[in-house]
Write a structure and sequence with these properties.
Length: 457
């Protein structure tokens, strides 16, 4: 009977993983590298945990299943509650992820008919007893560790989860297991991705892979087991925060932004940050459907131009329609248009080439990926249009420059490192596996499809 284990080292960069392998610090991961190589894949935009787990657990882009980011404004008023009509998966509303997901894409748990998971965020189809981190005890411990800003405490959480998950996997041998370790991400946010404790957190992941591999070998089912070790986003140090909500308040606008979502009467703009290096901005809030840029530009173009002068803003995306998005580059990098016709992608430089890609005429998805891989924005054409497919997406979408992010206040621990943006430091992730594939691994969705093929579902 086939088995799949997807192990997520949340937030690890490809170069960090490669350095740990080279230094001999992660022998089980090194064995996977020696067997099938170290792959570099692209994650999704926004490159942030939660949305970036959709590829692993549903094989889709988060925009296609209704998760455009960690926070969004609900134009429809049908999906969230009065009075603020917003969603934030940070904190108690995390449990609402499953109810927000589109029904037409089954999860790995539903497809495989069983599973085990920890730190999974998406759990549709997974019985409660098989969700290791959904217990009240875990929530209390995680909440306490988080709000104390205790990085070593997160490594203790990973160690405890690792042994509990190992015990359950060996006892139950489920078809599908999703084991995410958050130590690398937590340590990176508070101390920077190059801090030594990040590599210690990676060694906990290595220990889990080593223990599972050894036990499955001993018990004689290693040949039925496909293991994938992946990350869901990169990380890079930030030196400054440009708090967008405060920026708009200072300019005299009535702003809806977490945590200040109550008592804002007649808000003019909703600022919904993810990661924290990306943000959805919503204007014309009374409109129940997306207004799109041509209708908004008369009132808001001055705001758009102001944003492009800020050092924090790398790319400004302006949806013109369901299949067309204008891309403006920060500073004086000019604008271009990306458009999808059927399965083909077009990118036309207008007053500039903000993605550094040159004109693209009718390229399919695979070609878009290949052509953009060495640029600053790997897979950007496909990612931008997939996010634009979501009805919950903002009217302006911001992607931050490397040294910046968009939230200056209300974080339990200061963000010394961030993610969420479209640039390669956030979009490229490593992948190791013990199974080959006839088609190359490009995007994190490919892990899901290869995993489901292994399971025969
Ligand atoms: Zn993070």
């Amino acid at each position: 009977m086939p088995h799949v284990i997807i192990v997520v080292a949340d937030g690890v960069r490809p170069d960090t993983l490669a350095a740990a392998v080279e230094a001999g610090e992660v022998p089980a991961l090194q064995a996977l590298r020696d067997a099938q190589g170290l792959h570099t894949l692209t994650t999704v935009f926004p490159s942030v945990t939660g949305p970036a787990y959709v590829p692993f657990l549903m094989g889709e882009h988060p925009g296609h299943v209704g998760l455009p980011g960690l926070r969004w404004f609900d134009r429809s008023r049908a999906d969230t509650g009065w009075p603020h009509f917003t969603r934030s998966y940070i904190g108690s509303e995390m449990r609402k992820v499953d109810r927000d997901l589109a029904l037409n894409y089954p999860t790995a748990f539903e497809r495989s008919g069983g599973g085990l998971a920890m730190m999974n965020m998406i759990g549709r189809g997974l019985p409660r007893k098989n969700r290791l981190t959904d217990t009240v005890g875990f929530a209390l411990r995680a909440g306490y560790t988080h709000f104390r800003g205790d990085v070593a405490g997160w490594l203790d959480v990973d160690r405890a989860l690792s042994s509990e998950m190992l015990r359950r996997v060996l006892a139950e041998r489920p078809p599908f297991t999703f084991a995410s370790f958050c130590g690398v991400d937590k340590a990176s946010h508070s101390l920077g991705h190059r801090a030594p404790i990040v590599r210690q957190a990676l060694q906990i992941v290595d220990g889990f892979v080593a223990d599972v591999t050894a036990a499955a070998t001993r018990q004689g089912w290693i040949h039925e087991l496909a293991i994938f070790v992946v990350s869901d986003h990169g990380h890079i140090d930030v030196h400054a925060h440009d708090d967008l909500a405060d920026l708009f308040r200072e300019r005299g606008l009535r702003v809806l932004a977490h945590p200040k979502i109550y008592g804002v009467s007649d808000p003019e703009i909703a600022v919904m940050v993810s990661g924290n290096a990306m943000a959805h901005l919503f204007m014309d809030l009374p409109s129940r459907t997306r207004p799109f840029w041509p209708r908004l530009s008369a009132r808001w173009n001055e705001t758009a131009e102001m944003l492009l002068t800020r050092p924090s803003v790398d790319l400004l995306l302006l949806p013109h329609s369901d299949s067309t998005v204008e891309i403006r580059g920060g500073g004086d990098r000019g604008s271009a248009m990306v458009r999808r016709e059927g399965n083909r992608f077009h990118y036309h430089c207008d007053t500039g080439d903000p993605l550094g890609l040159g004109d693209v005429h009718g390229a399919p998805e695979a070609e878009c990926w290949e052509r953009s891989l060495q640029t600053d924005y790997p897979d950007a054409l496909v990612q931008i249009l997939a996010l634009n497919d979501c009805r919950r997406t903002g009217d302006m979408i911001l992607s931050a420059t490397r040294a910046w992010d968009f939230r200056g206040r209300f974080e339990p621990i200061p963000h010394a490192s961030s993610h969420g943006a479209l640039h390669r430091d956030h979009m490229l992730v490593p992948m190791l596996t013990n199974v080959g594939s006839v088609t190359p691994y490009r995007r994190t969705q490919d892990v899901f499809h290869r995993a489901m093929a292994h399971l025969g579902v």
